[in-house]
What does this fold into?
Amino acid sequence: MADVRPFRGLIFNTEIVGELADVICPPYDVISPQMQKDLYYRSPFNIVRIEEGEILPSDSSANNRYTRAASTLHQWMNTGALVRDETPAYYLVQHGFPFGGTTKLRLALIADVRLEEYEKGVVLPHEHTQRAAKEDRLALMEACQANISQIMLLYRDREGKLARLFQQTTNEVPIFSFSDSEENTFALWRITNPEKMQLISDVMSSKVLYIADGHHRYETALTYRNRQSPHRGNEDDEAHNFLMTYLVELDNPGLVVLPYHRVVGGLDSERMSQLHQRIEHLFTKETPIADPASHLNQFLQEIESRGKEARVLGFVQARDEGASLLTLRPELEKRERGPIASFEAWILEEMVLKPVLGDSLDEHVTWVHDASEAVDHLRDGHHQAAFLLKALPMDLFETIVSRGERLPRKSTFFHPKLPTGLTINLLKGRI
It folds into this structure.
């Protein structure tokens, strides 16, 4: 089903740019203004200049963050700071990162994947997108004619064919390895052996691919492709028919998914009362915990443990400095809605927040993936309650998304984010 191909990656030349840790950056959607400044300062070759360049007061249609990104890309290519591989390759990445007091390793394949409309069932989304982000990414893609960052796709490899090949590859010498100041380690290998490349393509051809991170960039790439070839089909090998991706197996031990918590604020007394009424109607409330900030890890562990057998949410209020476990009453479960109705984020949004907030939900809800930050919001005088959730299990993720359903917004946070700058994929010519 999936058409997965090797490509000629554009890779930083360390003889010119220096340490790779100084030239990579996070993806565009997590780069704050302060982080952007820090990355600019870190190195004149930091890829933030392309991925999420500065907006200047003097910007015009002829000179703006997108035209400067394209100019920077071409300059780095012309001076040899970025060098394109002569032959197509798959790129295997091992990312080590600290998590929960230990070090996890995430193994992923960087590859080109043929763009397919969602209706074909080859690449499946799990969330809806917003126009502004897609317009931004399209402007960058059209200016640079390149994929600057990868999107994350998930797949199943139950027989372990690719896992065995990848593990063998990690025993070889990588083309580069480095670490950063946050204890992340990276190593990258080229896979150019024809038999190994063919095995990867053959195994992937039977897979369904799930978008984990990068919905806006995927849909942007579809638009870009259609603009490049509006009068002919897309069954050829032109590079704009493909997208650079970061493929991770669903059972990879380094695949970490965290929940997004919901913080509610700005409610008048009537709506706050309605919120409490919905909670009283739908849930049993128990196990109050004093001072949740001091016992937050214990509280989160209780949510995780109890959530294995029931639909459980954590509920923290601003004024009483206490926390409660909310367990959905079994008789109120929406079993007719299928597997998605067992997902706590869906229960919270569809059965609690939407009935109370309606179309104003976005005005009153803040999505936060760090539980400590969610609780801290309750001290600012503007937020009134926080709902703490457990992470979505990957088997439930797969079941829901395979049915063609979209999850509530910000249902998953795949940690850590992918670095931008390991490889770049040019979209001119053939793959």
User: Anything to note?
Assistant: The chain has two domains: 4-256+415-426, 260-390. The longest strand covers residues 102-114. Residues 289 and 416 are 30 Å apart (CA to CA). The chain has a mean pLDDT of 95.
